[in-house]
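hey can u check if this looks right to u? its 219 residues, i copy pasted from the old doc so theres a chance i mangled smth
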Amino acid sequence: MTSENTETTTETVDTDAGSARITWHPAKQPRLVLAASHGAGGGIEARDLRALAAALPAHGVTVALVEQPWRVAGKRLAPAPKTLDAGWRGLWPALRAPGLPVISGGRSAGARVACRTAAELGACAVLALSFPLHPPGRPEKSRADELLGAGVPTLVVQGGNDPFGRPEEFPEAPEETYDLIEIPHGDHGFAVPKRAEISQEGALELITEGVAEWTRSLG
């Protein structure tokens, strides 16, 4: 897994939903910013977010890991989607401050936020990690409209055993709507069983290498 040694910085940003926090992982010669937020049940310590922050700066992508206001405030439960979207909108000026195109990204609930707001905020693309296509065991409660309505180039990275939506459950759509990378045996957090033919490190490499290659198509 390629990495680039850079000094991280942390920035607090006031939004209509409360104070949020951005941890910057800068590239030495940046061409893009990837803004990535966490899901409803965890923070920026998620394995996929950490791996992307370590790997992408070497590929010219500055990574901004975003902690939503509810998480900064120490709350255990995420608020309603409307409040999550308000927090993300309030962060956007800070995310655009480097003057580079911004990929709007996130995992799980954060991916939904990115999809819902990408077009209005002017994101150049969306990275949807573990997109929660439906609640576990409730495929009839599809959220495909959020994904299909992002309006910008979108990459979905999905675990093969994600109970919130396995890759084969995702709707067919024109190629320009979204691409999907499957992480074999991965669950919603991209954890893979010890008995799987792919190691945990190998799974993370699939994520970072796939995302890095996709960013090259964006500029």
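Confidence is low (pLDDT under 50) at residues 1-5.
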